[in-house]
Amino acid sequence: MLLENKTALITGASRGIGKAIALQMAKAGANIAFSYRSSEEKANAFVDELTVLGVNAKAYKSDAANFEAAEKLVKDVLADFGNVDILVNNAGITRDKLMLRMKSEDWDDVIHTNLKSVFNLTKQVMRPMMKQKGGSIINISSIVGVKGQAGQANYAASKAGIIGFSKSIAQEMGSRNIRCNVIAPGFIQTDMTADLDTEGFIKNIPLQRLGNGEEVADAVVFLASDMARYITGQTISVCGGLSM
Ligand code: NAD
């Protein structure tokens, strides 16, 4: 199996794309540590679902935007699992508003949750990965981070920041066999996109439909695995061709 004997830490994985990533990674043989923000019940039910697949799994209530919480999270995961081979920075939010109406809190919330979280978690796994002489970090950006989007200046800035950050980490850590790549999803069916009127933009998607979490997760599993051992600093769009 592609990820046998590896441990993956995924942020914000009790629903949506993060949940799909955790499931696909478990199916590929990885042990799964994941963080969630609010529903302990949902997180525990998901742990049971993962354990049935024959891997170790544990949920941690942890705010990815908080530096100290991220420090504790990685400490706890290392104590429970022994190592972290794969980090997936998935946690993200939107606070969509046109710039004229965007408040300072809308900017701060999105930048902290989407971008600072990537710094927080990456910082904590670097030393353990160096000790293990390898690791794979996968950051979930968005095609909006490349193209921009009216009404999403805060979100687009956070997602563009992830791409620059990831390329820098790839350059800093390549000699240590730590790879850092980005997935840029297009429109994926989750709670985040549930309220969007998608009919208008489906016609602009070459594959003529929205994507699903599993399709993003398959690309993440590939980047996490040794199949991608010579790939670092790259952004792969999983968007049905929309970003062309
Ligand atoms: P979602 O809202 O369904 O899930 C986001 C998850 O992140 C939730 O489980 C939430 O609890 C968690 N989260 C939020 N803030 C957190 C915090 N501070 N600490 C820990 N966890 C936190 O959204 P999704 O569609 O599954 O999005 C997952 C990722 O994919 C996000 O980074 C999002 O920006 C990105 N993305 C989504 C789409 C899409 O179309 N759905 C497109 C491009 C990128």
Number of strands: 7
SSE order in H/E notation? EHEHEHEHEHHEHHE
Low-confidence stretches: none
Arithmetic mean of pLDDT: 97
- Helix/strand-derived category reads alpha/beta
Assigned CATH architecture: 3-Layer(aba) Sandwich
Note the gap between the termini: 33 Å
Q: Can you tell me the number of structural domains?
A: 1
CATH H level, superfamily name: NAD(P)-binding Rossmann-like Domain
Strand content: 15-25%
- The geometry reads as globular
Main sheet: strands, sense, barrel: 7 strands, parallel
Catalogue the ligands.
Answer: nicotinamide-adenine-dinucleotide
Strand neighbour order, sheet with most strands: 3-2-1-4-5-6-7
Q: Count of helical segments?
A: 8
Radius of gyration: 17 Å
* Residue share in helix: 40-55%
CATH class placement: Alpha Beta
Q: Remind me, CATH topology? A: Rossmann fold
Detailed description of the structure:
- It is a single chain.
- The protein is an alpha/beta fold and 244 residues long.
- The protein has one domain: NAD(P)-binding Rossmann-like Domain (Rossmann fold).
- It is built from 8 helices and 7 strands.
- The chain has a 7-stranded parallel β-sheet, sandwiched between helices.
- Bound molecules: nicotinamide-adenine-dinucleotide.
- Nicotinamide-adenine-dinucleotide (NAD) binds next to helix 1 and strand 2.
- Nicotinamide-adenine-dinucleotide binds next to helix 1 and strand 2.
